[in-house]
Each structure stands twice: as structure tokens, then as C-alpha cells.
Design goal:
The protein is 20% helix and 30% strand. With 228 residues, the chain is an alpha+beta fold. A hairpin with a 4-residue loop joins β13 (172-179) and β14.
């Protein structure tokens, strides 16, 4: 079945599902903060799911912070993870969702054209090509961060990508309090027996979970709420 998006029909070389990998098999870009650099791929995913915010950083050669995704049909996803050593941890968004957030595909251009993007203050929309800049395999999309924002607020995801079927994100507070001594809900108080109830993050429970199978070189898809 051919999928229709804001950009029209999606062909076999395209994907309606775009992946933000929390580790692309190399050092984070120069804009990444120290705390993010210190995290593992799974810890970065845990932070994203718990906060529901995807923090932007300036890509190589650009000043504007962006959130980056890779357009990855099934075979290309296998290539990125298997041959390019991207770690199978991240979140999956839709093409329409990224377009609605102000994102789009970057242009892969020679130096002279890239210089024109830079002169216009739009270098975050382009990636240089050449022997010293070979990144076309990333099939990159970017969502530039509006000035003054902490990051990209995530209201809905297509899926969450993980390497381990048994991995679970850190539980978060639900806003509901239980009087543990009495076993009843309460409004929250200073009583030491009154504790906030926790659950797995909303984005984990409401999204498909994709578990990478390295033998089959594909993801195993679980419906929302199955992997509790």
C-alpha cells in the first residue's frame, strides 16, 4: 500500500517513518552538552521518554540548534545499524509530524552551493559533499529549534526503538498519591506514608515498541502497552 503524506506518495526508497538515533556510532556533535556526552544510548533514550523533550544541538558546520532524524526504509535501517554502526536506540517520528514541526530534509550539496546556504544563514539546511564530508548515508532530516525553546516537545511518537526486549525506561510520577499505610489514594501530604505513584512514561505506553533483531536484521514490532 502506498502511503500519502504532505509530500505526496512515499516510494520504496522513501519512508514515512524517520528515526532519531540516540547514538550514531560516533562522537556527538560539538554542540552536545557534557551531560549528554556522558550518557549511553539507552540513558539518552530514557531521558527523552521521561522528559518528553528532545533537546536540539547545533549540527557540524552550523550554528542553529536542530533535532536530527534519519529517513530509513527497512533495508536502510538495517544498513545504518549493521554496517554504519548506529546504535538501535531512539525514537521514531512520522514524515508529516516533522513537517508540521517545521522540519524537512537537508540538501546534500557541493562546497560552492553550501557557501550560498551559509551566506543566507541557512547552513543548517545543508550538508557539504566531498571526500572530507561523506554523510549522505544518514539521509538526514532536521527540525530547527525556535529561539528560546528548551527543545522539541513530544506529544506523540510513531515508535520507540530499543536493542533489548527486556529494557524498560525509568518510571515517572503520575501525579497520584497513595497513603501506603491505609492503601487509599490521597491528595498528597507530609505524612511519610503518603507516596506518589509511578508508572512507565506515557510515550513508552502509547507508542509501538520496535526491538532490533540482529539475526533477522529487522525490527520486531510490539503494539502500544504490550511491553510493560
Amino acid at each position: 500500500m502506498v502511503e500519502i503524506s504532505l509530500m505526496g506518495e512515499v516510494g520504496p526508497a522513501q519512508s514515512d517513518e524517520l528515526v532519531h538515533f540516540t547514538d550514531r556510532g560516533r562522537e556527538p556533535g560539538p554542540g552536545a552538552t557534557r551531560d549528554v556526552r556522558a550518557m549511553t544510548a539507552s540513558q539518552r533514550l530514557d531521558s527523552i521518554l521521561g522528559s518528553e523533550i528532545l533537546r536540539p544541538f547545533a549540527p557540524y558546520g552550523a550554528a542553529r540548534p536542530c533535532v536530527c532524524f534519519s529517513e530509513s526504509p527497512a533495508n536502510h535501517l538495517a544498513h545504518l545499524i549493521g554496517e554504519r554502526h548506529f546504535k538501535p536506540w531512539g525514537i521514531v517520528a512520522t514524515r508529516d509530524g516533522l513537517l508540521a514541526a517545521g522540519g524537512g530534509a537537508v540538501a546534500y550539496v557541493p562546497d560552492a552551493v553550501y557557501d550560498r546556504f551559509r551566506a543566507a544563514g541557512l547552513e543548517h539546511w545543508a550538508v557539504r559533499t566531498g571526500t572530507d564530508s561523506t554523510w549522505m548515508h544518514e539521509r538526514e532530516w532536521r527540525v530547527p529549534a525556535p529561539d528560546g525553546t528548551v527543545g522539541m516537545q513530544l506529544s506523540i511518537l510513531r515508535a520507540v526503538l530499543v536493542e533489548d526486549r527486556d529494557w524498560r525506561p525509568t518510571p515517572v510520577g503520575t501525579g497520584l498519591f497513595m497513603h501506603m499505610d491505609q492503601g487509599e489514594l490521597c491528595a498528597g501530604c507530609v505524612d511519610p506514608f503518603c507516596e506518589e505513584m509511578t508508572d512507565l512514561p506515557r510515550l513508552w505506553m502509547q507508542s509501538e515498541i520496535w526491538v532490533w533483531n540482529p539475526i533477522a536484521r529487522q525490527v520486531e514490532r510490539y503494539p502500544p502497552g504490550v511491553l510493560r
